[in-house]
Amino acid sequence: MRRRVTVSGLAAISRAIGGGGTSAISVTHPRLPQRALCGASYSTTNCNLQWLSSPGLADCLVPSGPSVVNGVAGTRFLSAAATSAAKEAPRPEKFSPKDVVLYQYEACPFCNKVKAFLDYYKIPYDIVEVNPISKKEIKWSDYKKVPILKVDGEQMVDSSDIIDRLFQRIHADNPVVDGDEVRKWRGWVDNHLVHVLSPNIYRTTSEALESFDYITTHGNFSFTERIIAKYTGAAAMYFVSKKLKKKHNITNERAALYEAAETWVDALKGRQFLGGLNPNLADLAVFGVLRPIRHLKSGRDMVEHTRIGDWYTLMESAVGKSVRTKAEKS
Ligand SMILES: N[C@@H](CCC(=O)N[C@@H](CS)C(=O)NCC(=O)O)C(=O)O
């Protein structure tokens, strides 16, 4: 059956991939029809705009295996230290669910956090790509956001909560999820890092188009939705990102992204991972939200102009190939 693309549908797309988690912003740019941004609610000027994000996208966009990374002074090859560090990822022995299904938007950062966790712990999962307009794939649930994870029929929601619950099952003998340091940096990802990403990926019209090309190519859109979403969404999010910038007191979005990357490298204090020789939940969270942008212009710039590249490459290696199954469930 053909889906009709409506103005409210486009708003839903913007909400689905827009910025800032649960933050609400008022969209008042005179040239932008507010309905085009605000989805289901025609009467409100408040849009719940989450930023664009995606973890599973990594499967499609992030080249796997050690590769060339860009350094500050130009292109350089991955350092020997970086290639040698990644250890075999742990395989959960006492936790081996038979049927794990992730309901997601491919470019959603929160979904990508969950995917990074599942990939690292080698818990195979199926993907159901949710249409951000109709959301018909999650009609069965009371929870109206993604990610939703179904583990042998049990529903889990909210990325951090999902990860905590899975972690506790994997480490049943020692189910302490976070120490202070891990808690602090996981909070930093949700409360700071994700807010910096949106203004960056929609910074210029060409970057907004690049981002929407990625989103609409990898998301669950009909042909017509894809074309309309790409151009309308890019235009909308270009303006919205300026609002997000203001809301989060960002004056220079690239500087803020570089600063976040450097802050993270400083937090490592010379360790390969925040977790030491192996990634911990904070490493996985940072990696998860950065993975969808890594090969967009903002991500390329970030790796070129900061010291984050070596850690990122180690993470790629540690997380390994995606363990999502090929077939998409419907
Ligand atoms: N705190 C939640 C936030 C989840 C969230 O905001 N997801 C967005 C997509 S990135 C969403 O589903 N928004 C509702 C919508 O698309 O209508 C989490 O960590 O999972």
TrEMBL record:
Q: So which domain of life are we looking at? A: Eukaryota
Quote the CDD domains the UniProt record gives.
Answer: GST_C_mPGES2, GST_N_mPGES2
**Localization:** Endomembrane system
- What is the membrane topology listed in the Swiss-Prot or TrEMBL record? Single-pass membrane protein
| One GO molecular-function entry | prostaglandin-E synthase activity
Q: Please give the InterPro entries that the UniProt record associates with this protein.
A: GLR_AS, Glutathione-S-Trfase_C_sf, Glutathione_S-Trfase, Glutathione_S-Trfase_N, PGES2, PGES2_C, Thioredoxin-like_sf
Q: In which pathway does it act?
A: Lipid metabolism; prostaglandin biosynthesis
Q: EC number(s) of the enzyme?
A: 5.3.99.3
| Catalytic activity, as annotated | prostaglandin H2 = (12S)-hydroxy-(5Z,8E,10E)-heptadecatrienoate + malonaldehyde; prostaglandin H2 = prostaglandin E2
* One cellular component (GO) term of this entry: endomembrane system
Keywords tagged on the record: Fatty acid biosynthesis, Fatty acid metabolism, Isomerase, Lipid biosynthesis, Lipid metabolism, Membrane, Prostaglandin biosynthesis, Prostaglandin metabolism, Transmembrane, Transmembrane helix
List residues traversing the bilayer.
none
Domain (GST N-terminal): residue spans on this chain: 98-175
One GO BP annotation of this record: prostaglandin biosynthetic process
Which PANTHER family does this one have? MICROSOMAL PROSTAGLANDIN E SYNTHASE-2, PROSTAGLANDIN E SYNTHASE 2
Would you identify the family this protein belongs to, as annotated?
Belongs to the GST superfamily.
| Protein name according to UniProt | Prostaglandin E synthase 2
This protein's species is: Morella rubra (Chinese bayberry)
